[in-house]
Write a structure and sequence with these properties.
This protein has 126 residues and is an alpha+beta fold. Helices cover 38% and strands 18% of the residues. A three-stranded antiparallel beta sheet has the order 3-5-4, covered by helices on one side. It has a two-stranded antiparallel sheet with strand order 1-2. It starts with a helix and ends in a 6-residue tail after the last strand.
Length: 126
């Protein structure tokens, strides 16, 4: 991992933390292992990430060097996954979710027009 990428990852994770999200370091897709790019590498990651402060998050830059992706811990965060490739249908479903739940404060587009809409809940869930 380059120093610039490490700084960018740390900045992103700290920004998420400061906005009341709980970042999770996730293995990068370059790692030759099952589900690389989609899973955390650290033991007890749920507990560690739930309690992580800024110092802990900053330590991940060196302690989790293969974790070049970032996820978010759920609990009070849910995702509505509009997992369709038809642009018109994806747009209709996204509008439907927005009409029902309000605008998403955070979204992610992987392979457009697929989109993940993130919403917070008042009460945590399992």
């Amino acid at each position: 991992m380059t120093a610039a990428l490490a700084d960018d990852l740390t900045d992103l994770r700290l920004t998420l933390h400061r906005n009341a999200y709980r970042p999770v370091p996730v293995l990068g897709p370059h790692v030759a292992t099952k589900a690389a790019g989609k899973r955390p590498a650290m033991k007890s990651w749920e507990a560690v990430c739930a309690m992580a402060d800024e110092a802990e998050i900053t330590r991940w830059t060196n302690a989790q060097r293969n974790c070049t992706n970032t996820g978010l811990l759920c609990g009070t965060l849910i995702g509505i996954d509009v997992d369709v490739l038809d642009a018109g249908q994806a747009s209709r479903l996204t509008c439907m979710a927005t009409d029902m739940l309000g605008p998403s404060p955070l979204s992610r587009i992987g392979r457009a027009p697929k989109i993940l809409l993130a919403f917070r809940t008042d009460d945590p869930f399992d």
